[in-house]
TrEMBL record:
Family: Belongs to the bacterial solute-binding protein 7 family.
Keywords attached to this entry: Signal, Transport
Alphabetized Pfam families for the sequence: DctP
UniProt xrefs under Gene3D superfamilies: Bacterial extracellular solute-binding protein, family 7
Gene Ontology terms describing biological process: C4-dicarboxylate transport; transmembrane transport
First and last residue of the signal peptide: 1-22
Organism of derivation: Marinobacterium stanieri
Single GO cellular component term: outer membrane-bounded periplasmic space
Entries under InterPro entries matching the protein: DctP_fam, TRAP_DctP, TRAP_DctP_sf
Name of this protein: C4-dicarboxylate-binding protein DctP
Superkingdom to which the source organism belongs: Bacteria
Amino acid sequence: MRLLTAAATTLALTLGAQFAAAAPIELKFSHVVAENTPKGQMALKFRDLVAERMGDKVEVKVFPNSQLFGDNKVLEAMLLGDVQMAAPSLSKFQKYTKSLQVFDLPFLFKDMEAVERFQQSDKGQELLNSLRKRGLVGLGYLHNGMKQLSANDPLRVPADAAGKKFRIMTSDVLQAQFEQVDAVPLKKPFSEVFTLLQTKAIDGAENPWSNIYSKKFHEVQPYITETNHGVLDYLVVTSAEFWNGLDDDVRAELKKALDESIAYGNSISG
Ligand code: SIN
């Protein structure tokens, strides 16, 4: 009887181990925007392609609208293994690298074609590796679009911004731009922008069209000036520990699905 119990226990443990080994790897993708945006759609496409092609190996779970982490926390969380993928704006990496700050320079890119050309150039591709020393891997750029300025009053010339409070992302280069026109820049999380505008705690903000529309900022900002003064694009990022810990074939399949999802996101971006 004891022999039988031991055999049954061994069998259960073996089956249990096999079952555990077969469970798909969970890949949490956290972002802060709505689902009806280029990034929201790109993340859902990635989830669906992975489910279709390798659902037995990896399960992608997408958390939009800052449900899991805001962009100011997500990279820390990634390094702790609490989230595996994100695509913060290129303006939100300055704690980890100064190199990506080039994207925040005003009027550097004439249009999104110019942004795309730079990102695909040798220098642009080299910048994907600028986070390696910090344990993060840049997997690709994703477009959103050029930024526009919205405010409670019309902004016709730069002097109209003087004395007004604008929400900006966590970037010293963006801060310097607003200070240059005597405006008051405030670094605030994206999740707070609507309320800040609605309560008039701030006067204005800079956003690409898809973020303005999907978060209804136009409902609380009577004026929008089409300035195209800078770009808001993303870096899809993961942790080196997670990425390098994957089997080669799984990593390659994931990268392929991600590249296709990014191409799709770019095709619907502004
Ligand atoms: C985003 O598009 O991911 C948000 C950008 C912002 O914080 O303004």
